[in-house]
Amino acid sequence: MRLASVLRVLWSHWTYRPLQFFALLIGLSLATGLWTGVQAINTEARSSYAEASSTIISNALDYLERKDGTPIKPETYLALQKSGWRTSPLLEGQVQFGDGRSVRVVGIDPITMPREMAALTQPVQGEADQDGSGGLVGFLVPPFTVFVSPGLADLKLNVANIGDVVVSENLPEGTLLTDISLAAQILNKPGEISRLVLAADQKRTRVNLSEVAPQLQRIANTSGADMARLTDSFHLNLTAFGLLAFAVGLFIVQGTINLAFEQRRAMCRTLRVTGTSMTVLTIALLLELLLIALVAGTIGVLLGYFIAALLLPDVAATLRGLYGARVSGELDFHVGWWLSGLAIAVAGTFLAAFWSLTKLIRMPILAASRPRAWARMSARSTLARLAASGICFALALVLYGWGSGLVVAFTIVGAVLIGAALLLPDAMALIISLFEKLAVRPVSQWFWADTRQQLPGLSLALMALMLALAANIGVSTMVGSFRLTFEGWLDQRLASELYVRAADEQQAQQLRTWLAAHPDVDAVLPIWSVETRIDGEPGQVFGVADHRTYRDQWPMLDRSATAWSDVAAGKAILINEQLARRKGLRVGDPVTIDEASRQYKLPVGGIYSDYGNPHAQAMIHVDLLTQLYPEVPRRRHAIRVDPSKAADLSRQISAEFGLGGRSLVDQALIKQRSVEVFERTFTVTQALNVLTLSVAGFAIFTSLLTQSAMRLPQLAPVWALGLTRRELAGLELLRGILLAGLTMIMALPLGLMLAWLLLAVVNVEAFGWRLPMFVFARDWLMLGVYGLIATALAAAIPARRFSKTEPAELVKVFAHER
Amino acid sequence: MLLQVTDLKKSFATEEGRLDVLRGVDLELAAGERLALTGESGCGKSTLLYLVGALEEFDGGDIRIEHQSLAGLSDRERAALRRDSIGIIFQQFNLIPSLTVANNLSFHARLAGREDVAWNEQLAQRLGLTEFLKAYPEQLSGGQQQRVAIGRTLAARPKLILADEPTGNLDEKTSEDVLNLMLELVAETGAGLLMVTHSPRMADRMDRQLVLTAGQVS
Amino acid sequence: MNVRLIPAILMALMWMSQPVAAQGYGGLGTKAEGYDVPQRGTQLQFPRDHGAHPGYRIEWWYLTANLQGEDGRQYGVQWTLFRSALQPPQQAKRGATSDWHSTQLWMGHAAITTPDSHHVAESLARGAYGLAGVQAAPFKAWINDWEMSGDGGGGASKGVGNLALSASGTDFGYRLALSSDGPLIFHGDQGYSVKSASGQASYYYSQPFYQVQGQLELPSGSVSVTGNAWLDREWSSQPLSEDQQGWDWVSLSFDDGSKLMGFQLRQSDGNNFTSATWIQSDGQTTAYANNKLKMTEISRSNAAGREVPTRWRVELPERGVDVTVQALNKDAWMETSFPYWEGPVNIKGSHAGVGYLEMTGYQ
């Protein structure tokens, strides 16, 4: 009963100051919402990866194919299965159906298909076979169920015994998926297997491949691992954003709670004097906080869900386009989010309330009430802040110099951010007092003096704004740099107009002859490679022709003056950045590559960037490659052709040799797709930027609003001495914008520092390569405009309220009753 | 005539309905004249002062300062009037908390464009504020704060000085000192002084006294 | 043991997205249209009937072994091959597309159970290109690299008297040699085994008299083992009635040489259907129809998240049997496409011995 009445008394504060209550609620909800939203996007995206790997059929899994590129015989498959291998046959081919469309037919064996590929046969939702007659039976026996990509939904199949045609979004466009038995019939390839997909876990006891099927080679499919790394980088960004958003939100919460506690000191003292024990009071305060946190947390989780639902289509598109990862784009509501959302809201509230609470508990029972003590920052606390900031920067420096690992990298980022945030109020005060000293006119002198005095009450909100702005600059710079680098790199790496892969060596030979005779073709460049060891590391060695395509375009980080001539002469090797970094290799250092029987040594002629590939890679002249590895497969080629004639040539090759899909790639298409992808990434980044900024704007708004009641004693004397309310309101607005502007100026170097840390420290720790940093001054300008608009809006409402204040209200400041 | 108030009316909307505070007040004040306005608590003394000080607007009648009517003035014009012609000393909270004593002292004068450094120095000295010039208002005692308020008003050399219980918050001794100083300095500037007070002793020190009862002067 | 048909049917449904529950156990109640159906009074022919019967929807070769290491440590080994037809053979021929075409699906399960670990592997294949199959003479059942093959001898067993058995998974493997002098055992009425009150039935015979010798490969190393094993053969097309939800099955080998095969089919109305075969050491059998055998849960334990009764009281009053059956390892959960519990047991009470317990339908 005692507790209940104490609670009622405490609660009356909120009904007296509903605005404060809503500020607290909204701040906490926004913080929780952003956090939950980002978590939701992350989990949803991650949970889709298992299926994602199946998007590019079986690409995520290793597979076996014949070294000469010819089909594998079922007898070989049988022999492998009997030797303990766990493989699944896959038959691929191009076929034209009745309506003239060329379709890539993929035949699989659903019985042995690795689980990782199961999503392939998952039809789009709502079209699942309801009567239960389908399923595996329908896939394996006539009338056959076949799956097609969305674009083939209206395909006319002139094949007997076809039953249901199910549209599956998990299939790459232009693909028809069916049982291998029917695929063999449609493609007229009886007794042929294109590839044998390897199950992820193989028995140790299986017989060596070279004994069972020496004609086969294992193709390690690294795309899965690469994708995971790249998507990880994306999630890293999102998580960092989520954390920052939450931190920014906490600033609001802390400010409001602090204020509420200070304003209730008198109330608490009265309660204690009238016999309420400290324990009961503390429990009551904790209960109150818990209740608020739970309500705000609930709102926040719902908010987060909507944020995620809104952003997920773009995130999904980003991941799909950029990394081939498939995210359904539909959001389930997980119970876990509720729990984690509420937990973080409660934890955040208590964290924010910790100081206020301990201060209150330590308060002597009859301490004088100092209502504005919260806003006062003594010289002692300035010293404490400077010391804490110094410790943060020192920690960051020490870690940068001597630490390693991703956690350390993030700790550095965190330490720099906190250190800078702690520095902000005093740095601002310094700048403002400088202006104050320079001010000549009385109003401007007062303006600066008053701004400086108001600073402590706004510093938390300004710190929030600075973090939000810095995060904006940092992440935008990182994404932007990534885009520029990656697109530039794609341009260089995909210098040729067409990339073609022949089905087998014989076709490759025909293709070379055909292309050589083709009038439009400028050059045919071999892309031949072997798996071997480079300087002891497993990796790929490519053979390159001596051609201006490489001389002009290949992305070199470092090279000797005569690199390409040396390579052409077979006297130098080019290696990728990853290998160079790992082995500490520089231009001129010798590198060995393993040949069948011996090692071959060459000096490094150059180092090139190779994003997205974790493995070692090297390039030597094609003649040297064929000389060292006479058995090297010679099926892949790049074709240089007038870009306007590329599409036409692609069609001719397709018609002449029946190549398509993965075998014939148009470079323009890849580039166009990658550009689209980055546009999507930017949409998401932009949206999160705006949201974070909104939260910071709200922090400023609530701070200004809670302060506005206490502003009257500051403003009334000036008004009485001959300034209009309108002029004073204008100055209030100007002050808000000015503070935001100053914060922005200070956020800029911090943001760039953050970007640099993300690109040069976090990226290197996470992915092994370092991205060059590009600055986008125009974006800062936009951000500056956004930030100013946000603060102007936040400051406009209290200012407007002041300009409408009745003179009678102002006069009350001097009146007797005060 | 420095100040002419004719048939001045002012009412407030309260919960019990309209409250007529001033029901046709007439008064005049010449340059250099000192007038005390007394009356019971809540009789509308302060309201009258605020109306004369161009802080609030009145409902009827007229106020003229140096023959300029206050009726129908815009916010801006009223602010200009406060700045250029009037000096107001309130009972408390006169000072601008964020400015030092020195800056508070000179603020009004600079605002009005009439700063006189020598006069400022003299005022500070005579008001006993020299050693506090770099302090902030919150560091001063109540009497010291009122001295700053008086100094600020006098520094601006307004023609009309309005004072609302300027010593109401001070003890008797301090009150006496501050009042003496104020009257002395006002006399030197030649400004007209309208002072609201409930103390007969203070009212006696003035040239003239007016009593406000039931919203009218008698 | 007819009830083992369920995994075979479910296997046919497992790959696609339809929820299994929608098919449910009702899938076994579907009419056996176009398939052959067991007939009472049919005389089984050997070695022919050791082989596959594609005209029937479902069939299996099911071997369980109770083994001991040289140090006396107990082991259980399971080797199972299921065959499941997607279409009756007549219909299947009409739909043939290429050599890959097959309406016969094969699924192998292999396991080793030790007192403190349980190793499971699954192997799948379609009935094409000889990836999996069973031939009667010389006897050979195989799927991928797993094999159970006879040497053609073995007198009373008519072709399955001597068997070589092998299977392996990612973390285990085994190679066993089996031999038996005893006769084949026919359950029910000369191998016609009734499974419900409404008359569903299967062909069901066993060879429970194998002596075993061989080698187990475990993560901790190789173990030489000896012991005995029990082979079950069963095939049918429509084995269960719709209201049967799961079953509990035991094969018990008592120290005095006698053996007991018993099962109960749990019905939704609580009237469980039981059946048993008493096997004397010389191979003489007595079949017990519904309700003669009594199986009562004593306690449950947690296996892979399910509560499963791993301790049973088994009673056959007419033979004076009242024993407690206790799992060697409670965690013998078969985490396969169709999950169930299968593991070795120890027997105490009126009779002592070892055996195998199988339980399905526990969620």
Could you characterize what this model shows?
The complex is a heterotrimer of chains A (818), B (218) and C (363). Chain A has 818 residues and is of the alpha+beta class. Chain A is 60% helix and 13% strand. Chain A folds into four domains: 1-55 and 238-375, no CATH class; 63-220, no CATH class; 378-492 and 672-818, no CATH class; 498-641, no CATH class. In chain A, strand 11 and strand 12 form a beta hairpin. In chain A, the strands form three sheets. Chain A has an eight-stranded mixed sheet with strand order 5-4-6-3-2-7-1-8. In chain A, strands 11, 12, 13, 14, 15, 16 and 17 form a seven-stranded mixed sheet that branches. In chain A, strands 10-18-9-19 form a four-stranded antiparallel sheet. Chain B has 218 residues and is α/β, with parallel strands linked by helices. Chain B has a single domain (3-217), classed as P-loop containing nucleotide triphosphate hydrolases (Rossmann fold). Chain B has a six-stranded mixed sheet with strand order 6-7-8-3-9-10, with helices on both faces. A four-stranded antiparallel sheet of chain B has the order 2-1-4-5, with helices on one face. In chain B, helix 6 (172-189) links the parallel strand 7 (160-164) and strand 8 (192-196). The longest helix of chain B is centred in the last third of the chain and has 18 residues, at 172-189. With 363 residues, chain C is mostly beta strands. Chain C is 5% helix and 52% strand. Classes of the chains: A alpha+beta (818), B alpha/beta (218), C mainly beta (363). Chains A and C meet through helix 4, helix 5 and helix 6 of A and strand 4 of C.
Structural class label of chain C: mainly beta
Kindly give the count of domains of chain C.
Answer: 1
CATH architecture of chain C: Beta Barrel
Shape of chain C: globular
Any key phrases for this structure?
heterotrimer, B: 218 residues, alpha/beta, Rossmann fold, 6-stranded mixed beta sheet, 4-stranded antiparallel beta sheet, 35% helix, globular, C: 363 residues, mainly beta, AttH-like fold, 13-stranded antiparallel beta sheet, 10-stranded antiparallel beta sheet, 3 helices, 23 strands
Question: How do the strands and helices of this protein lay out in sequence?
Answer:
The complex is a heterotrimer of chains A (818), B (218) and C (363).
Chain A: H1 2-16, H2 18-47, H3 49-52, E1 63-66, H4 74-82, E2 87-96, E3 102-108, H5 135-140, E4 144-148, E5 162-167, E6 175-179, H6 180-186, E7 195-198, H7 209-212, E8 216-219, H8 223-263, H9 265-273, H10 278-323, H11 335-362, H12 379-402, H13 406-438, H14 442-493, E9 498-501, H15 505-517, E10 521-526, E11 528-534, E12 537-544, H16 548-553, E13 556-559, H17 563-568, E14 573-576, H18 577-583, E15 590-594, E16 599-608, E17 616-621, H19 622-628, E18 636-641, H20 643-657, E19 664-666, H21 667-720, H22 725-767, H23 777-803, H24 807-811
Chain B: E1 3-14, E2 17-29, E3 34-39, H1 45-52, E4 60-65, E5 68-69, H2 75-84, E6 86-89, H3 101-111, H4 117-126, H5 142-155, E7 160-164, H6 172-189, E8 192-196, H7 200-204, E9 208-213, E10 216-217
Parallel strand pairs in B: 3-8, 3-9, 6-7, 7-8
Antiparallel strand pairs in B: 1-2, 1-4, 4-5, 9-10
Chain C: H1 5-13, H2 20-23, E1 58-69, E2 74-85, H3 89-94, E3 104-114, E4 117-126, E5 132-135, E6 140-143, E7 146-150, E8 162-168, E9 173-179, E10 185-186, E11 192-194, E12 201-218, E13 221-236, E14 244-254, E15 259-267, E16 273-279, E17 285-288, E18 294-303, E19 306-316, E20 321-327, E21 333-334, E22 340-349, E23 353-359
Antiparallel strand pairs in C: 1-2, 1-13, 2-3, 3-4, 5-6, 6-7, 7-8, 8-9, 9-12, 10-12, 11-12, 12-13, 14-15, 14-23, 15-16, 16-17, 18-19, 19-20, 20-22, 21-22, 22-23
